[in-house]
Predict the 3D structure of the following.
Amino acid sequence: MNNTNFDIIIVGAGASGLTAAISAKRKNSNLKVLVLEAQNKPGKKILVTGNGRCNLTNINVSKEFYHGSFDTAPVLKRFSAQRLMDFFAALGLVCDTEENGLVYPHSRQASAVLDVLLMEIKRLNIEIVCDCRVELVRKKGGSFNVKTTKGEFVAKKLVMSCGGKAFPTAGGSGMGLDVIKNLGHKITPLSPALCPVQVKSDFIKSLKGIRAKAEVTLYDGSKALKTESGEVQFTENALSGICVFNLTTILPKARNPIISVNLAKDYTYIELLNLLFERKRLFADEILEDFFTGLFHKKIGIALIKNVTQKPLSEKCRRLSDKEIKLLASLILDWKFECRQCKDFAKAQVMLGGVNGDEVNRHTFESRIVKNLFICGEALDVCGDCGGFNLHFAFASGIITGENL
């Protein structure tokens, strides 16, 4: 590259970085914009979102779905789901809204989202340099000197849209946060989010691969912190599924985290108790192994039975005592799993923590610490629930950043 001097350098060619570049160039076509990407291709994380379908926003987007020190209210006030859909419509992307508010490209291909962004990048003559890892940034006078594995670049303004540590297979490393920290910013503690939660249980291995509709509640000891409903997936040593993922956004707040799984949320205790006594009468001559046939997956039924009685599974159902029936009812409504704090970013969709929100202007995304430094996207201490909220913030924060460059 002959020219190493630019008006704007953007570090990270993900959702926020690409939209920041487009937004800035649209505002002023004379700007010289360079995007630096550590991976061999731009937008790798976009391609894996929504299981490859890219749930890019949610029509119900609001502040209540976000966590962290960065206040998302001004961003969401300026950028509704409809405005983001309009932004993509202008790029040629047709979107559909599902009944639950989730918005996907009509093709259900994440590649379509990335393709329209890159086509606009090309039309605007924005340069992207891949396989280019930023090693050090120094501010000298009114410029930023950016040292990379492909040489040194200089810019009047710098945008750090470098993401976080989540999804390391798609480039998440957290190295950009070290650069931001060296520029004087505080980084709040990092932890994985929207990921499976490892639990301690004598029965979890026997449930591997099973899915069940349930209501899940995160407790800190006896205090309920958050409740979600949906499909729980049991793995060899963890609870998974979107409803469990959404609990992880506040899991670090719990000193003694416990997840309660309610397998019959539409029943009161008395209603469930009556149902179980009726099953005892109906299945009196069947074996305990078959007590929950027609109600729960067989492996779940066996695990429940083993939790409350030492009787062999070959015993007749009539041998269940009233006490054991009551214990079963309580367990079905409140099956507790002791949690381990999430530490593995490999299976995390997003990251909790990041650049302290108080140190960044929530209207422009300019640093309050370093003039002409902008920070957007997942590098900030903001994390959304599942359902398109994280991508919405990434895209919106990038567009707003670009408007203020």
In short: The chain has two domains: 5-191+351-403, 196-341.
